[in-house]
Amino acid sequence: MSVLVYTESENGKFKKSAFEVASYAYAVAQQLGTTVTAVSFNADSNDTLGTYGVNKVLTISNDKLKTFNAKAFAHAITEAAEKEGSQVVVVSSSTDSKYLAPIVAAKLKAGYAPNVVTAPESTSPFKVKRTVFSNKGFAHTTIGTDIKVIGVSNNSFGAKENSTTATAEDFSPSLTDADFATKSVEVDKVVGKATIADADIVVSGGRGLKGPENWGMIEELAEVLGAATACSKPVSDLGWRPHSEHVGQTGKPVASNLYIAIGISGAIQHLAGVSASKVKVVINTDPEAPFFKAADYGIVGDAFEVVPKLIEKLKEFKAQNA
Description:
8 helices; about 30% helix; Rossmann fold; alpha/beta; 2 domains
């Protein structure tokens, strides 16, 4: 009857979202009076999950699962849920989880609620609050099926320490060749930098930067802040930056604690994709730019003057508080 949680990892290390969904699963388990079981794929240090309320970890060690495969991962998670008799399965709102969650729900004949932002409002009936309409509103959704799949919106619930002792148990799901009918041929990943999905801070640039040769100050600001770099759709379309950095409704969604938009006017598609960020700062020469209406803080000014000064002040602050 335990709450089952899928904890994402990469190169053997748990992603930040793994601790957030584990914390969420613990909150649900407390409401239901049960425990938390996690499923991990080829991850190291599984005992760290105990810090966030996980009681048991089903550890899967399988070379075929070192690269994400929605069908195979979904099969394994479904089998784990059946093994544990789980009536609630918790996943994140990452791209990978959004691929596999509907498959898991279909296999378990479960209701699926994505983009959930708070612990259940009630468990009988099972009601959750989630974002809808590209984060423009909230829906209070009741899930009436016996089994529920919950997709937790990134950076909404937070990673909360609830120290327990996590026991590890080897788990080998019965996978077949059919589960690997679709295979990843090649995976391109940015290395050595904070990723947009996991970053607490994102620094994003638009056409106001006038060309790719001016991206140095974006990267320098990101480095000072320990942030990920991103861009608007026109910038990636022009080839100034890789498409992996394109954020917005048609790119990667951003739910960071701080989003800094530099030289971005704020098209509706861009705003929809970043609206889940908690604090939005805009730097733009045009005081009528739409982004100012959505921003928490705005600076009307030339980015080529403002950003270098901001970098200088941040470096001074860090030096004084080192």
